[in-house]
Design goal:
The protein is α/β, with parallel strands linked by helices. It folds into two domains: 112 residues, Leucine Dehydrogenase, chain A, domain 1 (Rossmann fold); 137 residues, 3-Layer(aba) Sandwich (Rossmann fold), CATH 3.40.50.720. The protein is built from nine helices and ten strands. Strand 5, helix 5 and strand 6 form a beta-alpha-beta unit. Helix 4 packs across helix 8. The longest helix has 17 residues. The radius of gyration is 18 Å and the shape is globular. It starts with a helix and ends with a helix. It binds NADPH dihydro-nicotinamide-adenine-dinucleotide phosphate. NADPH dihydro-nicotinamide-adenine-dinucleotide phosphate (NDP) binds next to helix 4, helix 5 and helix 8.
């Protein structure tokens, strides 16, 4: 996806996929500095651990306590997080999160990144729904205390009833990943046609939740847009130029075999 976008704007840059063992992360970051890398993306299990090896983090990455994108600025390595920004950019194609009542299902890495960015984008109120109480409480407290958006935690037991005041409902769990029939435990008839329903799962892009939401008349957003947009944002951070999202989406769909 990234190399196709580099080629599209005439940049002879490379984007390498390198597997780094957890105990070698510090050496890998020193190697990046030594070899003059412009930046990198990081994924599990490095998103938190990498922070101690960097020179600073953006506001969002500081709030989240996780970095998925590093950029070299004046010789310093600065960590950012593009996952939540990619999501918000996708969401804005359907609705502006500013002033909205937002429900987030899940409290893992993706939920955390999305909750912080949706809060920074000006959401009016948020509800974190999670199966494991500790993780859910912690995320709700973070958004309440650090992002100043009134946020409640709801323990996820049985089918979640979406409250009628909800305007945006986001599945940020891994339910549906690799299984188009997997069911998010949610009362489908509590979804109303004026709600926007989004799913972070991108493979398959049309999850059961999105099919159910469409059957209730909701507008829906799949996880592919978030994935493409976080790459578009990373591209811009590193190169200072705009990528063509359709080139990236095409490359991603080809890679995933759609
Ligand atoms: P984590 O493991 O950090 O979090 C998983 C979350 O899902 C937790 O809240 C967990 O709850 C919840 N969960 C998992 N299974 C169930 C279940 N059966 N019932 C209820 N809750 C469940 O994963 P990530 O946050 O990193 O990733 C989540 C998803 O987001 C993945 O599918 C990933 O592919 C996708 N993703 C998509 C991106 C995109 O660009 N589209 C970017 C990043 C991630 P609990 O705390 O109780 O365990």
């Amino acid at each position: 996806m990234m190399e196709k976008a580099f080629a599209d704007v005439g940049l002879e840059w490379r984007y390498l996929t390198l597997e780094v063992a957890p105990e070698a992360l510090g050496d890998a970051v020193r190697g990046m500095r030594a070899m003059g890398f412009r930046g990198c993306n990081l994924t599990i299990p490095h998103k938190v651990e990498v922070i101690q090896h960097l020179d600073g983090t953006s506001e969002a990455a500081t709030l989240m306590g996780a970095v998925n994108c590093v950029n070299r600025i004046d010789g310093k390595l600065i960590g950012d997080n593009t996952d939540g920004k990619g999501f918000v950019q996708s969401l804005r194609e359907l609705t502006d999160p500013a002033g909205k009542n937002v429900i987030i299902l899940g409290a893992g890495g993706a939920a955390r990144a999305i909750a912080v960015e949706v809060a920074l984008a000006g959401a009016a109120a948020m509800t974190i729904v999670n199966r494991t109480e500790g993780r859910g409480q912690e995320l709700a407290a973070l958004i309440n205390d650090k992002a100043n958006v009134p946020t409640q935690f709801v323990l996820w037991e049985g089918d979640y009833e979406v409250p009628p005041e909800a305007e945006v409902v986001i599945n940020a769990t891994s339910i549906g990943l690799g299984d188009a029939a997997a069911r998010v435990p949610l009362a489908v008839d509590s979804l109303e046609s004026d709600m926007v329903v989004a799913d972070v799962v991108f493979n398959p892009p049309e999850t059961r939740l999105l099919r159910d939401a469409k059957s209730r008349g909701c507008e829906t957003l799949d996880g592919l847009g978030m994935l493409v947009n976080q790459a578009v944002i990373g591209f811009n951070i590193w190169t200072g130029r705009d990528a063509n999202p359709s080139v990236m989406r095409e490359a991603l769909e080809e890679f995933l075999g759609f």
